[in-house]
Design a protein that fits this description.
Strand content: 25-35%
Strand order of the largest sheet: 2-1-6-7-8-9-10
Distance between the termini: 54 Å
């Protein structure tokens, strides 16, 4: 499970900023908190902010981190890391980017991170915390890699690690036990776009076609959504080299309203864009809840009715439906979700750029009233946000537009 993710000097993030999934001591929605030993973690987090405020860059940073960890051992010495620092400062544009994650795996906390630029890894570190004591497993600098006795599988891998490869990934590729657990957890952190879903468009089709139990789970999922069709089926299209396609089934009626038969429609061609999006996300949502993995979605609510978006959030926030500790992190502009019934104050996050165009990241629970007290949970979060009380909204300099020169 994710405890914290920190990014610094990457895209619009100049200073280090942390997205925390640790539950604070506030009282609301206590039943949604995931308790693992001494840890109290949040099942979901929502991120608000104006366009170009850095919401997508935060999720992009998570994606870049997971991609580098997952693929680093397969790179070659000439591969670039494709990291973009904060370019609007003369100092940071020359410095490496910073990434760090804290994960809870089998009641042990692992803190892993690295600093890198486009050419090489500058620093890398791994610590574990058990019984409130943090133990170093390895530290890497430009000068070399130091491995402790608590990370025995790392011994002998130091000299085999390329400048542009992550040491953790190299140890994992050699079946190092601790490294394998951490890389598996990071690799199961899925980051997707709620708008550009082309990479995920066939996941549900393939999963339903390959696994009858998954097909049953998907049918149950769609029945709860009441999407307007009675059933769906998956079949291979013989005319297109056996491409797996989804079809929806609709009742056909006579003039008296009696069911007379059934019609089959192609999901992609005949159903709405919202229905197609939900179908494409279905496999990821179901697998995330089943496996207890972390799902990150940019623009989750795009093309979805607010009630459907709320239902997806409820699936993660409900301990009965989310029994394996899955976590959902998403960015949205849908202010209907800004209420105490949907989220705790520590689940609501904002991004806003300062006067140097650097992104700030903060949660609602951190904000204060004019008298210095915390934002109360009986306030109208949506109204306050729209009125600019929490920042992170577009600022229109001039509401009138002169089109005389057009």
């Amino acid at each position: 499970m994710l405890i914290n993710f920190t990014v610094g000097n990457y895209c619009s993030f100049k200073e280090k900023k942390t997205l925390s999934m640790e539950a604070t001591a506030i009282k609301e929605l206590k039943e949604s908190i995931i308790v693992k030993g001494d840890h109290r973690l949040l099942p979901s987090a929502v991120i608000y902010g104006a366009n170009s405020s850095g919401k997508s860059n935060l999720l992009k940073a998570i994606d870049k981190f997971t991609t580098l960890v997952s693929s680093s051992s397969r790179s070659i010495s000439t591969d670039k890391l494709n990291l973009v620092p904060f370019l609007l400062n003369t100092e940071t544009e020359k410095e490496p980017s910073f990434f760090e994650v804290e994960l809870l795996i089998n009641n042990t906390v692992y803190r892993y991170g690295f600093m890198a630029d486009n050419e090489r890894i500058h620093e890398e570190w791994l610590y574990k915390t058990k019984k409130k004591k943090e133990i170093c497993l390895f530290i890497r600098t430009i000068e070399g890699i130091g491995v402790t006795e608590d990370f025995p599988k790392g011994k002998g891998v130091e000299e085999k690690t390329r400048d542009n490869a992550l040491f953790l990934s190299m140890v994992n590729s050699l079946n190092g036990g601790i490294a394998k657990k951490i890389v598996q957890q990071i690799s199961s952190l899925w980051v997707i776009s709620g708008i550009n879903r082309s990479l995920w468009s066939n996941v549900t089709n393939i999963a339903c076609n390959a696994d009858k139990l998954f097909l049953k789970a998907a049918k149950t999922f769609f029945r709860t959504m009441n999407m307007g069709f009675d059933d769906f089926e998956i079949s291979e299209d013989p005319d297109i080299m056996k491409v797996v396609k989804a079809y929806t089934l609709h009742h056909q009626y006579d003039n008296e309203g009696r069911i007379t038969g059934e019609k089959r429609f192609t999901m992609q061609e005949c159903e709405s864009s919202g229905t197609n999006k939900l179908f494409e996300l279905a496999a990821l949502l179901i697998m995330s809840l089943k496996q207890g993995s972390i799902l990150v979605i940019d623009e989750l609510d795009s093309q979805l009715h607010p009630i459907l978006t709320q239902h997806i959030i409820d699936m993660f926030n409900d301990p009965e439906q989310n029994q394996n500790g899955a976590q959902l992190i998403f960015a949205t502009h849908n202010t209907n979700l800004l209420n105490i019934k949907a989220f705790r104050r520590d689940q609501i996050w904002f991004t806003e750029k300062d006067e140097t165009e650097a992104t700030d990241l903060y949660s609602l629970v951190e904000l204060k009233e004019p008298d210095g007290t915390k934002i109360r949970n009986d306030r109208s979060f949506e109204k306050d946000y729209i009125n600019g009380r929490y920042g992170a909204i577009p600022y229109i300099k001039n509401k009138s537009w002169d089109n005389s020169e057009v």
